[in-house]
Amino acid sequence: MDTPEILSNLFDKKTVELLKVLLIKEDIFYLRDLSRETKVSLATTYRIVQKLLKLDLVKKETKGKLVYYILNKNSEIHNQISTLVLGASAQDPLALLRQGLNEKYLGMYEIYVLKGKKKKIFIISDFIDSKFASEVIKNIKEQTSEVLDYMVVTKAQFDQMQQMGLVPKN
Q1: Averaged over 2-24, what is the pLDDT?
Q2: Among 25, 81, 124, 145, fewest CB within 10 Å belongs to which?
Q3: Under CATH, what is the fold of the domain 93-163?
């Protein structure tokens, strides 16, 4: 029996199903969409999301009359829940990226993440071979099914991008 199956037997199957979908989501979500996607009633989805709000695993946002939610990947319990629900392979793709780059280029690069609807990752280094970075990214996709939007640039190129206003300065 695998971990998600054990969890489903120990805990409410609907909660486990919602958690699986939420942990994979990259963007905001609406209760109605989450309910449809998981085939869990809207009332039950609401009840579960309220529990997740109390645990700080989910954050609630409002824009006018619209209410939407975002998975809080910075919460204290995110990694624990992710490992429990999705298994040990459900590591943070950025952590996997750093781990992969460190195998050959320890301390010889920086990672800059431009956050938005889809994170854009800049690997800043005068040493990293783009082919090597591409292999690391490919391995991450195989492990997590997540596609990373990335670019390898030199320090001078990145500085110029910031000067031009293409990338905000830290």
Answers
A1: 72
A2: 145
A3: Alpha-Beta Plaits (3.30.70)
